[in-house]
Write a structure and sequence with these properties.
Order of helices and strands: EHEHHEHEHEEEHEHEHEHEEHHEEH
CATH superfamily of the largest domain: Isopropylmalate Dehydrogenase
CATH architecture of the largest domain: 3-Layer(aba) Sandwich
Distance between the termini: 17 Å
Number of strands: 14
Bound molecules: nicotinamide-adenine-dinucleotide
């Protein structure tokens, strides 16, 4: 049996409620793939602040870096909102991403047929949507220098800098090409090369790299057209790769295709490290009530199997468990629409149904 160490940071609010569901399932599925997970659970965010007076400690960061793979719940809550910015739970998250050097943020946009009525778009437009957005996470206009505010002839002005180097583009594009090989083999690179120098560098660098991936089809799309195409015909996309700013905006727009924040997983990867977390926050309004939707956390565990553990079968099994639960009509409150054949349930019932699916698959195998 292979042994793999992972660090789990349940965090605050609903973080622990959803992450324990994900961990139990992950352990059970990995065992079926001859892999034993050695889990180290550590405090992070508000819970860490309560214990150590800081939302993360050097020792916790070092343990995360050593383990390489981290599964995180969510951080934050109103009780920590008035702390100094460097003591707030969210500061720990930014520090962790930076320390792990995770430069590529992967956000899969899957529309589950059982949930297509939960989206604001028509079912016939959504059916078959399966997009992977790869967003560059540590460069571009969010980090470029110079960055300042000044004044010219009494008129204040501000400057941000959008800068991309060839190596920054190549490393994130490589993630996109590799991911496409595990999917439908198509990459759409999104830029604004008709106007921006940095986008021309982006496009040139990706075209160069594509020579190493002759089996992957590469196309290019301007970001304004892409915003329209995501809504018009989302099924045309397989893997989309784009810069930090464009990816931020496009992935939020695309998230609405799925219908609920409680369904969206994410993976931030780079080098040998991987940070996996649901897109949602700590949801203090529902924390402790047993009603949180754990499926985004569970889907994040599937991404951990796919991109870090390289256990594609395990990833698919977790994703099949999610589909099965939805097809049984089980819905947490965020998804419940009183559609015939559906039943309003809590976190525990979803967890039991997921585990039952996995155990049945084990018996079949
Ligand atoms: P949120 O994502 O926590 O909640 C937004 C709404 O969605 C709430 O009504 C909540 O009940 C609902 N929701 C979210 N996840 C759900 C789930 N799994 N199941 C059912 N319903 C769910 O965003 P917010 O309310 O703006 O922020 C709350 C706290 O979370 C803040 O402190 C914020 O800073 C923090 N936050 C953390 C992260 C993170 O840890 N990555 C991300 C976003 C927000």
């Amino acid at each position: 049996m292979n042994r793999v160490e992972i660090v789990v940071l349940p965090g605050d609010g609903i973080g622990p409620e959803v992450i324990y569901v994900a961990i139990d399932l992950l352990k059970a599925v990995c065992r079926q793939y001859d892999t034993e997970l050695i889990v180290t659970e550590l405090p992070f965010g508000g819970t860490c602040y309560e214990e150590y007076g800081s939302p993360v400690t050097e020792e916790i960061l070092n343990k995360c870096k050593k383990a390489k793979f981290v599964l995180l719940g969510a951080v934050g809550g109103p009780q920590w909102d008035d702390l100094n910015p460097d003591k707030r739970p969210e500061a720990a998250l930014l520090q962790l991403r930076k320390e792990l050097g995770v430069f590529a943020n992967l956000r899969p946009i899957n529309v589950f047929p059982a949930l297509s009525s939960a989206s604001s778009l028509k079912k016939e437009i959504l059916d078959g949507t399966d997009i992977l957005i790869v967003r560059e996470l540590t460069g571009g206009i969010y980090f470029g220098k110079p960055r300042f505010t000044s004044e010219e002839n009494g008129d204040p002005f501000s400057v941000d800098t959008m800068k991309y180097s060839r190596s920054e583009v190549r490393r994130v594009a490589k993630v996109a090409f590799e991911a496409a090989r595990l999917r439908d083999g198509r990459v759409c690179s999104v830029d604004k090369a008709n106007v921006l120098e940095s986008s021309r560098m982006w496009r040139k660098s990706i075209i160069e790299l594509s020579e190493e991936y002759p089996d992957v089809e590469l196309t290019h799309m301007l970001v304004d057209n892409c915003a329209m195409q995501i809504i018009r015909q989302p099924t045309q996309f397989d893997v989309m790769v784009t810069g930090n700013l464009f990816g931020d905006i496009l992935s939020d727009a695309a998230s609405m295709l799925t219908g609920s924040l409680g369904m969206l997983p994410s993976a931030s990867i780079g080098g040998e490290n991987g940070l996996y977390e649901p897109v949602h926050g700590s949801a203090p309004d529902i924390a402790g009530k047993g009603v949180a939707n754990p499926l985004a956390a569970v889907a994040s565990a599937a991404l951990l199997c796919r991109y870090s553990l390289k256990l594609e079968g395990a990833a698919q099994q977790i994703e099949s468990a999610i589909i099965s639960v939805l097809e049984q009509g089980l819905r947490t409150a965020d998804l419940f629409t009183e559609e015939p054949g559906t039943k309003l349930v809590g976190t525990d019932e979803i967890a039991s149904a997921l585990m039952e699916f996995v155990q049945q698959s084990e018996n079949v195998n």
